[in-house]
Design brief:
The chain is an all-alpha fold and 86 residues long. The protein has 5 helices and no strands. 77% of the residues lie in helices and 0% in strands.
Length: 86
């Protein structure tokens, strides 16, 4: 059986780490992320701090805007498929 809560925290952590790696050092990173996703800079600050992960609609916008973030998410999907097929 899949441990959903553990999986959610791992996925959220991986996505937040990818956002920090890509945007964390950029000037006005929270404002840039907010503009990409239609959210607030405070929400984006929370992502960068690892306090919460983007919601689905925001994640789709990030994936559409940034191929690197899309690749991270797709790697998570591939990993889950491997686990499910084992």
């Amino acid at each position: 059986m899949i441990d959903t809560l553990d999986h959610r925290s791992v996925v959220g952590g991986v996505i937040c780490e990818a956002l920090r790696a890509r945007y964390g050092e950029l000037k006005h990173a929270p404002k840039r992320l907010a503009a990409l996703t239609g959210t607030t800079p405070r929400t984006a600050e929370n992502w960068l701090a690892g306090q919460c992960a983007p919601q689905v609609a925001q994640l789709v916008e990030l994936m559409a805007a940034d191929p690197g973030i899309e690749e991270v998410v797709m790697e998570l999907v591939r990993s889950r498929r491997e686990i499910r097929s084992a």
